[in-house]
Amino acid sequence: MTYTPSDIQLPYDGIIEYYPHLFSKTVSDEYFEILANEIHWEHDKIMMFGKEIITKRKVGWYGLKPYEYTYSKNTKVALPYTEVLNDLSKVVQGISDTTFNSCLLNYYHNGEEGMSYHTDNEKELKPRGTIASLSFGATRKFSFKHKVSKERIDLQLENGTLLLMKGEIQEHWMHALPKTKKVNTPRINLTFRTIID
Ligand SMILES: O=C(O)CCC(=O)C(=O)O
Ligand SMILES: [Fe+2]
Question: What span is annotated as the signal peptide, if there is one (predicted)?
C-alpha cells in the first residue's frame, strides 16, 4: 500500500509530511485502548524557570535497546518495545523510509495538558533524523513557530494521524501542543526517533 501525504507544508527551513487518516477510527480507537493500558505511564519531571516540576501529562520511553534519554536534566532508560509498538514502528518506518530505534509516548488526559514550544534536538538523537509522530484519541491543535521570523503554522492532529518532521526542521522551527479548554478527552502521542548507537 502506498500512502500520499496531504499538501500541507512549512513555507521554508524544514519539511513536514502529514498523513491525515493513516488508520481508520476503529483501528485507531483500538490502538488507543491498548496503549493506554499497556504502556508504563509515568509523570514527567521538567525544569521550568530553574525549578523542577512534575507534569500532569504522563510519558513512556521505549526502545530496541535500553537507551538512556535525557531531557530537562531527567534521564530515563528505555523499556523494551511491546508488540503494538513493534507493529506501529514497522508501519511508520515503511512510510518514512527511516529506521527508528526508540519511541517516546505522551498521554494528555485532557486539553489542560499540553507541551510548550521546544525542538526535538536532544544530543542523543541522530542529527536531522526524521521524527514520526502518531496521534490517537482527541483531536488537538499542533503549532510550529519559526525561531527567527516567528511565523506560525497550525495543524489539527486527529485520531490516527501521522506527522513526519524531516531534515533541518528542528534547527529552525519549534513546535508545541497548546493547552485548550475545549478538549475534555484524552490523547496519546507517539514519537518514533533514532538514537545514535
Ligand atoms: O504530543 C505531541 O503531538 C507532541 C509531542 C512532542 O513534541 C514531543 O514528544 O517531543
Ligand atoms: Fe517534540
Answer: none
pTM of whole model > 0.90? Answer: yes
Residues in contact with ligand 1 (CB, 6 Å cut-off): 104, 106, 115, 120, 133, 142, 157, 175, 177, 189, 191
Query: What is each CA distance from 114 to 14, 117, 130, 177, in whole angstroms?
Result: 23, 10, 22, 5
Report the CATH number that the domain containing residue 159 is assigned in CATH: 2.60.120.590
Per-residue pLDDT tens over the stretch 129-188: 999 999 999 999 999 999 999 999 999 999 999 999 999 999 999 999 999 999 999 999
User: ipTM of the predicted structure?
Assistant: 0.98
Q: Which residue lies with its CA nearest to atom 10 of ligand 1?
A: 120
Joined grid coordinates for residue 114:
499540553
CA distances from 133 to 36, 149, 193 (A): 17, 25, 9
Decide: 16 and 164 in contact? Cβ < 8 Å: yes
Range of the domain at 107: 22-177
Reduced to 3 states (helix: H, G, I; strand: E, B; else coil), residue 188 is strand
